[in-house]
Amino acid sequence: MITVSYTGEFKRSLRQLIKKYVHIRNDIEPVIQQLQQGELLGDRIQHGTYIVYKVRVRNSDAQRGKSGGYRVIYYLKQQTDIVLLTVYSKSEQADISNAEIKRIIKTAT
Q: What is the rounded CA–CA span in Å between residue 53 and residue 76?
């Protein structure tokens, strides 16, 4: 079983998104469960020595598919330790910069 932890940034982002998208927890929960079972989801983002992935998640509140849904960014800290860095809505934020990912990782480690 893989340990999945959350950064303060992830929790803050989730709290903000819940105000607009009430079902976000239900949408993201299957992703967290799959990560706990050892599945590495999404696309790997080239980010130096860090192993970072971006997962596209369907937004059931917006009635859009994965392309217009959420993005969950996570960091594979060790083979048995995953850190959820942040979550954002693709409709509200185009993409996340490498500098922003690096900043979140630095504050989390």
A: 8
